Fold each of these.
Amino acid sequence: MRTVAEIRDRLLEDLRFMVWRPSMRGGNADASEELLLHLLDTLCFIDRREKVWAAARSIFVTGCRWVRGHFEFQHRPFPHFVNEVTSVYAEVAFTLGYFTPARLLNDAEMSRLASVCERAEFRCQDWTETELHAQFGPPSHEVVGGLTTVACYGSEAPEVKWVFFDLARRLPWEDDWLPVPVVRDFRNGHHNQMHLLPVGERWAGELIRPAPDIIVDTPIEFFQ
């Protein structure tokens, strides 16, 4: 029979894979979120950290549809949100000490990134993945697989909010995959409001769709 330590190591191994390529384990956004919640909940149970886990959930996992609801309630026509949802749990796992990204930004780097993202000149143009990396350096972590890559930029300080860039690998008006992914939007708040860049604005404008029946209108205060 396996020891508790062996089971814990296996859960950490599963978590590291899951926050990298969720579609190979969870499939869709609902199943991926359930699996990530289970992994983190079990690790915190093993480590007797239930109160820490509850505190993290109160910050990151809010609303009747949890993290996936943050995206559904925005009524955007973008696909699936599997990687977007998973990126949030990568940050949660980091704050809990169960995941270490490849790179963490220092205070100056993180402050500069946050400042640049607020500028009109950043928001009014499209950025390729190559240009994004040239601007801010390599991301702390990437969630990959499928139609969207999420570039995650995290700080050395666990209390500092990560910034996520959602990069489209294929666009609905193109016949093939893009040679280089382009930033569709970025997110820098706990409720994951997608700040659309021009390509995201065009996508949202051209492909308006009715929201699924399970989604209800959400007051703007939710995103503030």
Amino acid sequence: MKQMIKTRLTVSLLLLSITIMIFAGCGKKDGSTSSDYYLRFTVSGKSFTFKGYPYASFSQDNGIYMAGIGSFQDQGVGTKNVASVLIGSLTAIKEGTYSGLIAPPGGGNTPSIFFSYIDDTGKTFGSLYDDNATNTVTVTSLTGTSIKGTFSGKIYDMLDANASPMSFEGDFYVTRVN
């Protein structure tokens, strides 16, 4: 029980770090935002469309290529109403489907997909290692200016060791920060 709580707290911190990474580079490239960009998703049957700073940030570290995709509900930046999707790969992110585990050069393994969602009360939900086989992201379009795709899987209340899984699925069309 203690191990599960410790694991969930670690994942919560990871998710917060991911969210910060995604939005650290967020800014208006040309002084404007496009209402065409979005992150649209459903959590256990409740639908949301977030259009506040919908961005993707790409990076590479220790042999893992990452794409952080996310958005806030509106233009206000804060710690509520934010959703993100993180893709990890041993090769550069490209069009295709991502799921399962990856084995970084340094050893061990890690899920290739992490989901996070912070609701309107500030409660954090995220995916767990155990769901690596069922959490999936499909990148359908990747250009120098945007990324588009779909995702599906499960998220959990990160502070409740007995939380039941909630379905988390949707699609995104976001502008690239880099």
